[in-house]
Automatic annotation (TrEMBL):
Superkingdom assignment: Bacteria
A GO molecular-function descriptor: D-cysteine desulfhydrase activity
Cofactor: pyridoxal 5'-phosphate
Keywords per UniProt: Pyridoxal phosphate
Annotated Pfam families: PALP
UniProt family annotation: Belongs to the ACC deaminase/D-cysteine desulfhydrase family.
Tryptophan synthase beta chain-like PALP domain segment(s): 10-304
Record PTM N6-(pyridoxal phosphate)lysine, positions in chain: K44
Name listed for the protein in its UniProt record: D-cysteine desulfhydrase family protein
């Protein structure tokens, strides 16, 4: 890991394995970051190792974060806050459920302070969070804000570390393309930084599950600039290296569609669970882009999401496919 003033906590089970599966006439390598832990399953814990270390260094007692109502990040943050003896506070985009499911159910187990904001209110989530932090500070309690997905110049270093973890495998296996979902930009930015530091020459494609290419080009560039300040070094990563692919988010963020759900079923029958928010869309996008991108030996970053499956049971069961005999 590149040197910085911040020493990450050890919260994830890593290194995570890389599994090969046969898909049609080629193999796909899958970095199983859904196996970073039980409750911490997924990519968020790698970011939180850095973010919560920073929070503890700053003597925070309360962690405030935000996300969609089925946010993997919020669930992992609340859980790890409890592990570290901190209080977690959640700001969720969505209507308060009568009977919470999936990640939201776990959120209720991990904290008694959850705020549900509608779409208009959620546009001002940072302002809402700052007001909460100010209230805690007025009581003499330091609070720390973690942005959506843990995606900033600190959190992204979790995936700089992950990229460095994969370097030997990528070289030895002749991987010619790397893919991940892009929902808040931190995982993708971290992978780019790790590639730059390690000197690898491999394209990294981000499949958008939210927003637009223009939005994420700006967001990822900003995260890399923040990381430069954290690392205390220049990162010469050009915009032309940020390879973002649109066309696979469907009707919008966290809205599943038939083709991705069919992929979820197919992979489940292989013992790999994808989710309908991130990995289902990203995996579907990867295989659909094969002919255009002309890759032959890809590596897919499985960023987790198992608990959100339980929040989309009706949609997933609607497109159930029969099991092959």
């Amino acid at each position: 890991m590149p040197s910085s003033a911040l020493t990450p906590l050890s919260l994830a089970s890593k290194p995570t394995p890389i599994q090969k599966i046969r898909f049609g006439d080629y193999e796909i390598h899958i970095k199983r970051d859904d196996l970073t832990g039980l409750i911490t399953s997924g990519n968020k814990v790698r970011k939180l190792e850095f973010l919560l270390a920073d929070a503890l260094n700053k003597k925070a007692k309360v962690i405030v974060t935000c996300g969609n109502i089925q946010s993997n990040h919020v669930r992992a943050t609340l859980y790890l806050s409890n592990i570290l003896g901190l209080k977690g506070v959640a700001i969720l985009n969505g209507k308060k459920p009568k009977f919470p499911e999936g990640n939201t159910f776990l959120d209720y187990l991990f904290t008694d302070e959850i705020y549900f904001l509608n779409d208009e209110e959620y546009e001002k989530k940072e302002e809402f969070a700052e007001n909460l932090i100010s209230k805690y500070r007025s009581k003499g309690i330091d609070a720390y804000f973690i942005p959506t997905g843990g995606s900033n110049g600190i959190g992204c270093l979790g995936y700089t570390e992950a990229m460095i973890e994969m370097v030997d495998y990528i070289k030895n296996q002749g991987i010619d393309a790397l893919f991940c979902a892009v929902g808040s930009g931190g995982t993708y930015a971290g992978l780019l930084i790790g590639r730059y530091i390690s000197g690898l020459d491999i394209p990294i494609y981000g499949i958008l599950v939210d927003e637009t290419k223009e939005y994420f080009l700006k967001k990822i560039t900003g995260i890399i600039k923040e990381a430069e300040r954290v690392l205390g070094r220049k990162l010469e990563i050009g915009e032309n290296e940020i390879l973002l692919i649109e066309g696979y988010k469907g009707s919008g963020y966290a809205i599943p569609y038939k083709e991705e759900i069919e992929i979820i079923w197919k992979l489940a029958r292989r013992g790999i669970l994808l989710d309908p928010v991130y990995t289902g869309k990203a995996f579907y996008g990867m295989i659909k882009e094969k002919e255009r991108l002309n890759y032959t030996n890809p590596l897919f970053i499985h960023t987790g999401g198992i608990f959100s499956l339980f929040g989309f049971k009706e949609e997933i069961l609607k497109y159930r496919i029969p099991q092959k005999k």
